[in-house]
Design a protein that fits this description.
Layout: H1 2-18, E1 23-32, E2 37-45, E3 54-62, E4 72-77, E5 85-91, E6 106-113, E7 128-132, E8 139-141, E9 151-152, E10 163-166, E11 172-174, E12 178-179, E13 186-187, E14 190-192, E15 204-206, H2 207-214, E16 215-217
Antiparallel strand pairs: 1-2, 2-5, 3-4, 3-6, 6-7, 8-15, 9-14, 10-11, 12-13, 14-16
């Protein structure tokens, strides 16, 4: 009889240990561009017991880390029933400040559920999710290049300020006067040079690479 009672207590202890909330981040969507800097997360309780109140942090993880005005949005959730799901949002745009480089140091968004361990969960290892953000290295499709040796400037009737190339992406290049730092004199010509590697219509280049590859002042 004593052995049976002990077995019942052991089974009951295991049952109670497994009866707990389990909070997790099911999904995290981030929109990070010039117009919007927002995140939306789905928080779920996949455990077998209701969760009482807890916190959720949306962190803008930085490199380097700002000494002041670190971007963070927090939510206080009054509770979440077992099997329940809530959607929380964070807008980081109002947090832009010179101290955090106007959010220029943010490289990823992290969502932390119950960071203060207010809820005793059956699994404490699934409370976070991260999504990297991109600050946009712009690439542009310029299509087929002009013929090597083509000159722009006075020899073909253009004056400084004239637009001589318009790409399919709307990028414009114009003729400008250049003045030597030493030696005096000005010039306002440019010539298309053969790029260091062949390319044609449809190839994409970073803008800085394209300019350095195509245009040289002579």
């Amino acid at each position: 009889m004593k052995s049976l009672i002990m077995l019942v207590f052991i089974l009951l202890a295991f049952a109670l240990a497994g009866c707990a909330p389990d909070l997790t981040v099911k999904n995290l969507d981030v929109t990070w561009d010039d117009a919007n800097k927002k995140a939306k997360a789905e928080i779920a309780n996949i455990g077998n017991k209701d969760a009482e109140n807890f916190l959720v942090y949306f962190n803008g993880d930085e490199n380097p880390v700002s000494s002041n005005h670190r971007p963070q949005v927090s939510h206080s959730v009054p509770g979440l029933s077992k099997g329940g799901l809530i959607i929380l949002e964070a807008d980081f745009a109002p947090l832009a400040h010179p101290d955090n480089q106007n959010l220029g140091n943010v490289y990823q968004i992290s969502v932390l559920v119950d960071p203060k361990n207010m809820v005793k969960e059956s699994n404490e290892e699934n409370n976070a999710k991260t999504v990297p953000v991109s600050h946009g290295v712009a690439c542009f499709d310029f299509g087929p290049p002009p013929v090597a040796g083509t000159e722009y400037g006075s020899p073909v009737g253009n004056v400084p300020g004239d637009v001589v190339i318009v790409s399919s992406s709307g990028i414009k290049m114009a003729v400008h006067d250049f003045r030597w730092v030493s030696g005096g004199g000005t010039f306002n010509q440019a010539r298309i040079e053969i790029p260091p590697q062949p390319f044609g219509g449809g190839r994409r280049f970073a803008l800085t690479t394209l300019i350095s590859s195509l245009i040289s002042a002579v």
